[in-house]
Structure formats: structure tokens, C-alpha cells
Design goal:
With 644 residues, the chain is mostly beta strands. It contains eight helices and 32 strands. The strands form five sheets. It has an eleven-stranded mixed β-sheet with strand order 1-17-18-19-20-21-32-29-28-26-27. Strands 11, 12, 13, 14, 15, 16, 25, 30 and 31 form a nine-stranded antiparallel β-sheet that branches. A hairpin with a 4-residue loop joins strand 20 and strand 21. The structure holds copper (II) ion (CU). Copper (II) ion binds next to strand 25 and strand 31.
Length: 644
């Protein structure tokens, strides 16, 4: 490796320099301390989230100019004794709690502490030890329990109102063996997370469940697979003059792009104020880009899986789940890392080293033409990549935002990790709702729906979204051969019209247009959302799973910007019954014409599990693009130098 990575910013002592910078460790402590002092938040409480209250667009300019000083934290916490949850606003500048609101009936997000404490409690519990012993599993150090959240509709009547969790039980063959190699099927503890007690153990052994475990090939460590690593020649990425971007605080500049890097517990990486410098002028493209929800319903109604509906963002949080990156493995080349600061459920800050990776990449050919007279002309593409990785129990999501010299923005997600598996019922035959991946072992089908929140500001906030469709009028008039193809552009004027579905037959896409700004051709400037990675929910609309995440019923939703509309499945999907986000907001059918629009794009992976996904899943890749459409007066790819 040619150089060591640079780590920038985010040290505990460095104060905030920009109003959009995430909370520092000191600010997290300060917010928690204010609540302890003023609201009696005590040791029996948990902090679900402590984050920057991001200044709205109305005050951001004044804050940036220093005309206004205001720094606030939003905190969600709850009292474990009675389960009552509260949302608070803490003024960090005033060191005081300025808002304190009870959230009746709401269950805040799951916390990392609960996951660990639950695992410890269960593994020390004689009832679980007994159930495992009956299956011949006696070494509890090799056992892993993995608690999942419930949907309200599936909570048994006797447990209504509790902060309820249900758990899988896994065991590994050896100390470093794959923790998810052996599912103890038919064994599920149900827990009260506030009292951290075991309520019951569902155990199918007495109903004819199996006692023995199959002999599976579930290992992935080189020492355990028995495989010799194949030979690969060294490949080095060297930038002798350093990388081509600059990072000033959290302001990232590269080629003509400029953006600001944010981070919070729930969305993980957030991109703010994305702009492109064009003819000496910084032109806004997006005010804010992030992932606002990820819904993963498992499509297997059997007892081991029917509750398996993960909200990886709303229940667990991409920020909380972010893992440290390693040079040469996760990222190759001349890398700059940013640390991130989240917190635990006691309100203590926790720093994730090397949480965000920033680097430049070669991206193959940008454009090319070969002419007899002029000869070949080729330009190589360079791109700026900002990425982070999360591990949500058995799964990892690798998230990449890429900025290109031609004005394109690509958002890519790679899903990898270890699939959930369980034993084939009755020990034989084909599994009904999944794929056989090993001896008597199958991986259930499931879906990963990701909701990207795209607050675009194309040359300013006054934008309109147009559905663009390819239409063939057919033979007739001046087109006797029926060759003509025309573009139909339909403005989406209301939130009802803004609910859009993927349409292959019309090659439907969506253009975000600023009708009051014209390019040199006299046409309005725009950016196009090119849909890909979209798939239908294939879920009955009356099903409890769909009702919690109605957002997956459309590929695209468009809303007018509101500061408090951030979570498409509601503020608290944990133990939710109904999606209180997008369906509720859009029921008002507000105008979305020539206004500050937010696009909610639903994409992801329809995961029909494969034998080759086991025991580790090679990355499954999905992406979508934002492409300039009449945004530039001249082609921004023309002045890219050859052979760099
Ligand atoms: Cu999957």
C-alpha cells in the first residue's frame, strides 16, 4: 500500500464549525445531562436517540452567515419502569431543555444495549439452557440469541403494551465458527425488553420438532472451510500526488462538485447541500440526500419466520449499526476517513472510527470516439465515492454515493453478510417459501425495500417533478410506418399524482425540473431520476406487514418539503400497527407543483435466495442514478483530460 489513510475531523474536543455538522461527543453528553438535570431522566431510563436538530431551510442561511446562533439536539428517551416515551429538544447554546413531549403509545427504536443485554440474559437463563440441553447443546458460550422487534398486529393479547421482542437461537460449531451457521429451529424466546425478562419460550420439540442438527457446510473463515485461498496478483492503486478532493471540516470539494457530509444514528451518512460549480457559479442540485427507511419482510409464514419484518433504519438505525472500515479491504487507494459519533442507551457518546470513507476512483471509459481522420479520442472517467458500511446482525449493507464528472450521481447499495436459514420442516422435501441451501437447511425468500429520501433543489427550491414516458402514437398522418416515438412529460401537481409506479412498457422516469431557470437552449433545467432496482411489493394490502410499510406500495412518492416529515413509515416503526408516515402525510393531497419537493424513491433487492448465497452472500448490487437533463449549458464531460 502506497500510503496510510488520513483521518479527519470528529475528534471529541473539536467544536462544531457548521450548523449542519453532527453532534460532537461533548454535545451528546451535554444533551443527556440537561435531561437528567431538568427532567429527572434517571438510571432506569434509556436514550433511544440523540441527534442534531437540523436547522430548517428557513433559518439555515442566517445560521451559516453567523447572523443567528442556535444549536439544538433532539432526544428521544423512555422510562423503562412505565414504558412512557418522550421527545425533547435541548438547546445546546442555552444549555436547557426547551421542549418535552410525551409520546403516548409509542415505542422508540431498539438499542444496541438492549440487543446485548437480551442476549446475555437469555444465555444465562435456565429455561433456555434446558431447551438447548434437550437438543444436545450444552456449551452456552457457542450460543447466540438475536432479538427482533415485533409488529403490533402479531403481539399476543396478553403482552399488549409491552416493549416486546422475540428471538432466534443460533449456535456455532467452534469459538470462531459462523455464528449463523446453525439455526435452532422451533425455539424462540419472547422477552419483555423493559424488564429484560424472559416471558416464555416457544419450543416446537414437543410438537414433533427435530432434536438433531444437520451437518452443514456453514463456515467461512479460511481455517475452517479447509479451502486454500486462490492466487491473485497484487493490484495497487497509487495517487503519487495525493487525492484530488479537499475536505474543509465536513465540506467536501472535488472537481466541480461540492457537498457537506452529515451523519446521524438513524440514516447514517447524510449528504447536504450538494452542488455543482458551473461557469464559476455553485449551482444547487440537492439540499439533502439520505436513506430514510429500509423494510425487510421475510416472505415465509412458518413459525420460525412469520414475525420477521425488519425496519433496519426505523428500528435499528444505520448510524448505530455503522462499522469501522479497513484500508485495503473495504477501501482501496488514497483514502480519507471520517469518524462518526453515536451514543449508547445511557446517553454516553460512542465513536465509530473510520466510519465514512472518501476516495477517488477510476471508473473506466467516460466517452470515446474513433475517427479515420482525427483518430481515437478516449477519456477516462474519474469519480468521487463517499461510502459507509453497516452490519445489522447477520446482514451487511454497503452504501456508496458516487459523483461523476459529467454531473451524474449514482447511489449504489451492496447487500452481503449471512442469510437467515432454518431447518426444512419435517427434515425433507423442498421448502415452500425459500431455497434449499444445505443439508435440510433453507433460506427463506425476503425483500429489502430501501427508501431513499431525495430532497432535490435543482437550481433552487422551486421545482416540479414530471413523469416522462415514451409513447408510440402508431402509424398514421406523417408517420405511415408507425416508427415515431414521442416523449410525454406529465407534471405531477398533487401528492396523489406524485404516487408513481415503475412502468417498463413506457420506460417511465421522473424529471425534477426548475421551470423558472432556462438553459441556453431555452428549455428548463432538470435532473432525472432514472429508476432501477425497483420491484413490486407482492404483498397483500391488508396484511399486517404491508400496513406497517405502505410506502412500498409505490416506486416513488413526492411531497412538499416539511422539516418534520423525515420517516416514511412513521417516527416509531418499532411495534407499529400502521404506517403513519407517507400515507398519512400525502392523504392531505397537498400541492407539489413549483415548490420545494422531496422525492421518496423505493428500491432494493427482491431476494430469491440461492444456494450460492450460502454460507456467505457475495454482494448483491442495486443502484439508481440522478442524471442532469438540460442542467448544463455545455457538456461537462468535454473538458475531461485524456489519459489521466
Ligand atoms: Cu437478502
Amino acid at each position: 500500500m502506497s500510503s496510510s489513510p488520513t483521518s479527519a475531523g470528529a475528534s471529541a474536543s473539536a467544536g462544531p464549525v457548521h450548523p449542519l455538522d453532527p453532534l460532537t461527543a461533548g454535545e451528546i453528553r451535554q444533551a443527556a445531562a440537561a435531561l437528567r438535570r431538568e427532567r429527572g431522566v434517571g438510571p432506569g431510563w434509556r436514550f433511544a436517540s440523540i441527534e442534531l436538530r437540523e436547522p430548517g431551510k428557513d433559518v439555515l442561511t442566517a445560521l451559516e452567515a453567523g447572523e443567528l446562533t442556535r444549536r439544538e439536539a433532539v432526544v428521544v428517551c423512555w422510562d423503562r419502569a412505565d414504558g412512557r416515551a418522550y421527545r425533547a429538544v435541548v438547546s445546546l447554546t442555552g444549555d436547557a431543555v426547551t421542549m418535552w413531549q410525551h409520546l403516548p403509545g409509542q415505542h422508540p427504536n431498539m438499542t444496541v444495549d438492549e440487543w446485548h443485554e437480551c442476549d446475555e440474559m437469555l444465555r444465562a437463563h435456565p429455561a433456555l439452557a434446558g431447551a438447548l440441553a434437550r437438543r444436545g447443546i450444552t456449551d452456552l458460550s457457542l450460543v447466540l440469541t438475536d432479538v427482533w422487534a415485533y409488529g403490533a398486529a402479531l403481539v399476543p393479547e396478553r403482552y399488549r403494551g409491552l416493549r416486546l421482542g422475540w428471538s432466534d437461537v443460533w449456535y456455532r460449531d467452534s469459538e470462531r465458527g459462523n455464528p449463523y451457521a446453525h439455526h435452532v429451529s422451533g425455539l424462540h424466546p419472547v422477552v419483555d425488553l423493559n424488564r429484560m425478562t424472559l416471558l416464555e419460550i416457544e419450543d416446537s420439540l414437543d410438537d414433533g420438532g427435530r432434536r438433531d442438527q444437520p451437518d452443514v457446510r456453514g463456515e467461512y473463515l479460511p481455517g475452517l472451510t479447509g479451502l486454500r485461498p486462490r492466487e491473485v496478483k497484487p493490484l495497487q492503486v497509487v495517487q503519487p500526488d495525493g487525492s484530488g478532493f479537499t475536505l474543509d471540516g465536513r465540506l467536501l470539494s472535488w472537481q466541480d462538485w461540492q457537498l457537506r457530509l452529515g451523519f446521524n444514528h438513524r440514516e447514517g451518512l447524510v449528504l447536504h447541500q450538494v452542488g455543482f460549480r458551473d461557469a464559476g457559479r455553485l449551482r444547487p442540485v440537492a439540499h439533502r440526500l439520505s436513506f430514510a427507511e429500509m423494510f425487510v419482510p421475510y416472505r415465509d409464514p412458518t413459525p420460525d419466520h412469520y414475525r420477521r419484518t425488519a425496519f433496519d433504519i426505523g428500528e435499528w438505525g444505520l448510524g448505530f449499526m455503522t462499522t469501522s472500515l479497513e484500508l485495503g479491504c473495504d477501501c482501496l487507494g488514497e483514502i480519507t476517513y471520517l469518524d462518526a459519533v453515536v451514543h449508547d442507551s445511557r446517553g454516553e457518546p460512542r465513536t465509530i472510527r473510520r466510519a465514512i470513507c472518501i476516495h477517488e476512483e477510476d471508473s473506466g471509459v467516460l466517452w470515446k470516439h474513433v475517427d479515420d481522420a482525427a483518430g481515437p479520442e478516449v477519456r477516462r472517467a474519474r469519480r468521487l465515492v463517499v461510502s459507509f458500511h453497516v452490519t445489522v446482525a447477520n446482514y451487511e449493507y454497503l452504501i456508496y454515493w458516487r459523483f461523476y464528472q459529467d454531473g451524474n450521481i449514482e447511489c449504489e447499495v451492496r447487500a452481503t453478510g449471512i442469510m437467515v436459514t432454518s431447518l426444512v420442516p419435517n427434515g425433507r422435501g423442498r421448502p415452500g417459501y425459500g431455497t434449499l441451501v444445505d443439508e435440510r437447511t433453507y433460506a427463506p425468500f425476503h425483500q429489502h425495500f430501501i427508501v431513499a429520501r431525495l430532497d432535490l433543489d435543482v437550481d433552487g427550491p422551486g421545482n416540479t417533478v414530471y413523469a416522462t414516458e415514451s409513447v408510440t402514437p402508431g402509424p398514421g398522418g406523417d408517420d405511415p410506418y408507425g416508427l415515431g416515438l414521442v416523449l410525454r412529460e406529465t407534471p405531477l401537481r398533487t401528492e396523489a399524482e406524485g404516487k408513481q409506479d415503475y412502468d417498463w412498457s413506457a420506460q417511465r422516469g421522473w424529471k425534477v425540473v426548475n421551470d423558472s431557470v432556462r438553459n441556453d437552449l431555452g428549455t428548463p433545467v432538470g435532473y432525472k431520476l432514472v429508476p432501477s432496482g425497483a420491484f413490486p411489493p407482492l404483498l397483500d394490502r391488508s396484511s399486517p406487514a404491508f400496513r406497517r410499510a405502505e410506502v412500498i406500495g409505490h416506486t416513488l412518492w413526492v411531497t412538499p418539503y416539511r422539516e418534520d416529515e423525515r420517516w416514511p413509515c412513521g417516527d416509531f416503526p418499532n411495534l407499529s400497527e400502521q404506517d403513519t408516515g407517507l400515507p398519512a402525510w400525502t392523504a392531505r393531497n397537498r400541492s407539489i407543483e413549483n415548490t420545494d419537493v422531496v422525492l421518496w424513491y423505493v428500491f432494493g433487492i427482491h431476494h430469491i435466495t440461492r444456494p450460492e448465497d450460502w454460507p456467505v452472500m457475495p454482494v448483491d448490487i442495486v443502484s439508481f442514478w440522478l442524471k442532469p437533463f438540460g442542467f448544463f449549458a455545455r457538456n461537462p464531460a468535454l473538458d475531461v483530460p485524456p489519459g489521466h
